[in-house]
From TrEMBL:
Domain of life: Bacteria
MF-aspect GO terms: L-aspartate:2-oxoglutarate aminotransferase activity; pyridoxal phosphate binding
Protein source organism: Yoonia rhodophyticola
Name of the molecule in the record: Aminotransferase
Enzyme class: transferase
Catalysis: reaction(s): L-aspartate + 2-oxoglutarate = oxaloacetate + L-glutamate
Family: Belongs to the class-I pyridoxal-phosphate-dependent aminotransferase family.
Residue ranges occupied by any Aminotransferase class I/classII large domain in the UniProt entry: 34-374
InterPro entries named among the record's database cross-references: Aminotransferase_I/II_large (IPR004839), AspAT/PAT-like (IPR050596), NHTrfase_class1_PyrdxlP-BS (IPR004838), PyrdxlP-dep_Trfase (IPR015424), PyrdxlP-dep_Trfase_major (IPR015421)
GO BP terms: amino acid metabolic process
Cofactor: pyridoxal 5'-phosphate
UniProt signal peptide: none
Enzyme nomenclature, EC number: 2.6.1.-
Pfam family, one: Aminotran_1_2
Length: 391
């Protein structure tokens, strides 16, 4: 007997991009103290008030099967949030609640891609993107972006590879680069989708973490509401990463079919988790801004640490909880630098190569530890890079 090629080919036969992270975790398990700047996990836990709402719901009996599309209360709350932020009329039938944003990405591509279809994504990319496309039976095709344009995908680059494609996956604010797609970029994306008849799948899980500019959802652009699926999540906005609750927003008929998919796969999200998410959204933007504030502050601290030297350069971080650092002056690629830094300073960062070809020679730093420890670790990284550059 053999396993299916679909599941054995999820990583494309290579690394899943998490090798340095796994090595750091093995070092920690063996007793070595490692400063982890790898994954997008807040240093704070979920708000006690949200946990109290979750506990009250569970103890109140909402522990059985919840409605597969999501509870009416949460679907309505998500729809109202999206409508308020985009100006696009949105109701609960536009919303499917999913077990986190990752499940939403998978479901969106199941909905739009047939076996063997070509699905586009932007490089650099979040590490799961190509594997998600392969898992649904699609053929991933990258659109290479450049640090020279702030890693913003250009119309011509999309059009050049769009030929037989059926979908385009974008992420703004972007993980790993921190790029926030501006109006000109998104107009080009929308034009490319309409010119080449592409579904647009927009990963907007970092929409509350914008430091420069403003978040623009492409669903609100002219001609895009009927061809756009927006993926969102409570993970980053409310520090609810482990609760696994997210959503897909799209046209009514598409969401209807995706509910059929959920019935045959996840069978919904725990009701008490959904009640907690609805409570969290009801706290408004002040609660979201409080969760985002440490990353805004550390982004400023990052620029201060890097000022006055040219060995390590930051890609302009306009949003999200990460900063991409160009370390090519050391003579190492991202993977080599990340492994050397882990050995020499016990600091774990993600190699740029984990996120694609365009991020080679960079590392991604997660701004997810307290300010003093973060500044200390970043200064050690800079000093280590300087020592390599002068060898």
């Amino acid at each position: 007997m053999e396993l299916s090629s679909r599941i054995t080919n999820i990583t494309g036969g290579g690394s899943d991009g998490w090798d340095v992270f796994y090595r750091a975790r093995r070092m920690i398990a063996a007793g070595t103290q490692v400063t982890e700047l790898t994954i997008g996990e807040h240093e704070i836990t979920t708000s006690p008030a949200i946990l109290q709402a979750m506990d009250a719901s569970a103890r109140g009996g909402h522990t059985g099967y919840a409605m597969v599309p999501g509870t009416d209360a949460l679907r309505q709350a998500v729809a109202a949030r999206i409508a308020a932020r985009t100006g696009v009329p949105t109701d609960m039938d536009n919303i499917l609640i999913t077990p986190g944003g990752q499940a939403g990405l998978f479901a969106a591509h199941i909905a739009t891609c047939n076996q063997g279809d070509t699905a586009l994504y932007c490089d650099p990319y979040y590490t799961t993107y190509p594997g998600t496309l392969r898992a649904v039976g699609a053929i991933p095709r990258a659109i290479i972006t450049s640090p020279d344009t702030g890693f913003q995908p250009q119309y011509d680059a999309i059009a050049a590879v769009a030929g037989d494609a059926v979908s385009l996956l974008i992420n703004t604010p972007n993980n790993p680069t921190g790029a926030v797609y501006g109006a000109q970029t998104l107009d080009g994306i929308a034009r490319a989708c309409q010119d080449h008849d592409l579904w647009l799948i927009s990963d907007e899980v970092y929409d509350t973490q914008v430091w420069d500019g403003a978040h623009i959802s492409p669903r609100g652009l002219a001609g895009m509401v009927d061809r756009t699926l927006v993926v969102g999540s409570m993970s980053k906005s409310h520090a609810m990463t482990g609760s696994r609750v997210g959503w897909v927003c799209g046209p009514h008929d598409v969401i209807g079919h995706m509910i059929d998919l959920a019935t045959h796969t996840t069978y919904g999200v725990a009701g008490f988790v959904q009640d907690a998410a609805a409570f969290a959204l009801a706290q408004g933007t002040d609660a979201e801004e409080a969760v985002a504030a440490p990353f805004r502050r550390r982004r400023a601290l990052t620029l201060e640490v890097l000022r006055g030297q040219n060995t390590v350069r930051a890609v302009p971080a306009q949003g999200a909880m990460y900063v991409m650092l160009d370390i090519r002056s050391t003579g190492l690629d991202g993977e080599g630098f990340a492994n050397a830094l882990l050995d020499a300073e016990q600091i774990a960062v993600m190699p740029g190569e984990s996120f694609g070809q365009a991020a080679a020679g960079h590392v991604r730093v997660a701004m997810t530890i307290d300010d003093d420890a973060y500044v200390g670790a970043l200064q050690k990284l800079v000093n280590f890079a300087k020592s390599l550059a002068t060898q």
